[in-house]
Structures are given as C-alpha cells and as structure tokens.
Fold this sequence. Notes:
By secondary structure, the chain is an alpha+beta fold. It has 2 domains: 4-156 and 311-436, 3-Layer(bba) Sandwich (FAD/NAD(P)-binding domain); 163-306, Elongation Factor Tu (Ef-tu), domain 3, CATH 2.40.30. The protein is built from 12 helices and 18 strands. It has helices at 11-21, 63-73, 77-84, 97-110, 139-148, 194-206, 227-232, 284-291, 316-319, 344-363, 375-386, 411-432; strands at residues 4-7, 27-31, 54-57, 86-87, 92-95, 114-118, 129-131, 154-159, 163-165, 175-177, 187-192, 249-250, 255-256, 259-265, 272-275, 302-304, 308-313, 332-334. It has a 6-stranded antiparallel β-sheet with strand order 10-11-14-15-9-16. The relative contact order is 0.17.
Amino acid sequence: MTQVTVIGAGLAGCECAWQLARRGVPVRLVEMKPKKMTPAHVSPSFAELVCSNSLRSDELTNAVGLLKEELRRLHALILESADRNRVAAGGALAVDREGFAGYITEKIRSHPLIEVVEEEATDIPDGIVVLATGPLTSDAMAARIQRLCPEFDLHFYDAVAPIVTLESVDMDSAYFASRYDKGTADYVNCPMTREEYTDFVRELRAAQEAPVHGFDDGGVFEGCMPVEVMARRGEDTLRYGPLKPVGLRDPRTGQESYAVVQLRRDNAEGTLYNLVGFQTHLTWGEQKRVFSKIPALKNAEFVRYGVMHRNTYLNSPKLLDRYYRLKAEPRIRFAGQMTGVEGYVESCASGALVGIETAAEVLGLPPVDFPQETAIGALGLYVSGGSVGDFQPMNINFGIIAALDHRVRGKRNKNAEISARALRILEALQAEKEVLHE
C-alpha cells in the first residue's frame, strides 16, 4: 500500500499520522527533534505545547467546544490525550503539558504502521507528502516551500506566557475562583487597585523588549497579542482584556476589583501556574521586575519566562483546496498553523481532515467532503477560499459555519442549535462514508 510521508510531529502532524494509520495506511513521520530544536521548544516529545496549556472552552455554545466534540467523535488522538491529561480550569479544557505530549508520543511511536524518522527534512520527497512543519519551520524547509509557493512569506508573531510556582504566590493578596463561579474555583486571581493597575501599565509600557528580528506591533496576531502591546493601545485595554475583573468578586471585600490577573494551572500536580493572557517578548529581567509589581506576584518564582517567536503561514485561499492540497501539485498537502488555522484545536482539526481525506484517496474511497455546517468542514473551506481581503490566521468561530435556515432567539440558543445540527450531520457522515466507519 502507498506510504504517506508526514513531515513534522506537532499537533497537526501527529493527528494526521494517527488518522492515516488507524485506517491502515502506512506513515513515515519525519521529525527533527530532538536532534535539532527550535528556540521555543524545550522537550523532545511530540505535540509539545509551546504557548498556553489551554485548549479553550469545552462548551457546545462555543465554536471551539463544537470543534473539540467533532474531533472526539472522529477519535482524534490529540483530544484523547487532552481528556486524559486534563487539569482543572473551570469551563475550559486545559492540560498537563508534559503528560499530554508524553501520551501522544508513546501512542505514535508504538503504532506498528507509523515509522518515526528523527532527522531534519530539508526537501520534499516523492509521493504523497503532508507538510506539518508548523510556525517554526526550519530555514531549509522554509526555503524549499518558498520556492514551491511564491506567496509563502506571510507571517505574524506569537508570544508565550510566563509560568510561576504556586507556592511563591502571595495568597494573602490572591484568591481561588472561576469567573461567574462557573465550574470549580480553578484560577488564582490576583486583584489590583486602580493605583496598582495604573503603576503596572506605566511600567509595562516603558519596559525593555527583547529583540525579535523584523518585529513591529502591526505583525502581531490579535488572538495572541503580547501584554505590552495591549498596554500601548490604551490605559484600559488590559482591563477589557486579560485583566478584566468582571464576574470575579474578591472574597475579602465582596466587590469586583479594579483589575484582576488570573493564573491557570499548568501541570497536574497544581504546583505551576501560567499568567493568563500574558504572552510577552519583554526581556527576562524586565518580566521579573514588571510582573512582580502585581501584588500577589511580588515574590513570585518564575520557572519559565515568556518568549516571542515568528509564525509563518501560507496565502492558503490562493494555494490550497478544501483538502489542504496544493492546487499546483496536489500530491503535496499542508496541515497545521502554516495553513492559517490558528490555535491548538484548529491545528489538530486540519491534521485530522488531511489524514482522513488522504486515507480515502489512498484506499480508493470517496472523499468525506465535510460540509460548512460542521466546524471541521467550515475551517477547511474558510482556509481554502472563504476569506475576504488580506488573508489572516483564523480561529474557529460560528461566523464561518453555515447559518441556520431559521431564526433562534438568543445567541447561546442559536449556537447550541448550530452545534446540535453539526453533530447530527457528522453522525450521518459516519454512517454513510466508508472511510469513517469503525
């Protein structure tokens, strides 16, 4: 049987390889770690989460919650690992990042139809190839893709949030709670007075940034913006963003604070917490100095500082079809953030779709053609031609999923009905399409 080469063992590459292998298609998975690491990676494991440890909302009234449920029903390895390595995070799905990556690595390495090759891919081999090299594609492969896709040189910058130890947080100045008391009290909340907030924003605006080649505020992806960039946009920008106090009442006063910094659990033991929304590219010394001005973090021990890295992506609407295949050379297909999907779950979804549709092709079966009524289908259709104007990375959202043919009162009710419709359609596809049969 035809062997498919998958280059890159991140979320998309691992999911693609998994979906192929579980359908009996042999896979050659090429990964340059641990022989060669990028500046943002620290672990030799596959599917390493280099930014947040959250896969966002798990509710079906949220588009990413729907996408996760679709992936669960498609037996996605990434979701299987996430559910097994879940840590408390209110209504969100957050994971112990080491357990998450370790589980996926073991599953991939032990599958008899997946051959893991530990080397840097510098060229595109013959046959069917899935390029899932991610936003941190090596220079050699980036140059090769550049020759293949003249419109490849689009990019934005992504930033990673710092992590602190829980024992170093001053709990006399913080409290456990989830916003609106939703779920369990999983977040450490660090309140600030107006004076403390104003002083923090002033210092944040003036703090020294680490040099990042070619960086400017205009190149930042809106969904993962450095906290210092937000601070420069206005005095209250942070209070309407990651420091919003809405739905959080300080148990010491019974009132909402002027601003609140939230910390989210980062490991299963609950000893490490990351600063929610605090992606940054300040120098490490400045991170320690400025973030320590948050009262509860005055003596915080930072076990990882934030870093900034470049994300590179294709002008996919001009280059790719709905199966993420290169229109000019369909044997070559892409998956993950390089296609312009943004987010862990979205990367997994692109890998799953490519794996399933490629398996159908290899096995001589009809394609699934996931429709726009499903989240996984809507994402692929948007990336391959649904954007208007300059193409920008996109998180899944209900705006790109086909609308209902009738009115529903209330946004949550409408979203719940869209999700219910999507899952009914997916169930019908699983019954109809042989490549989806178990």
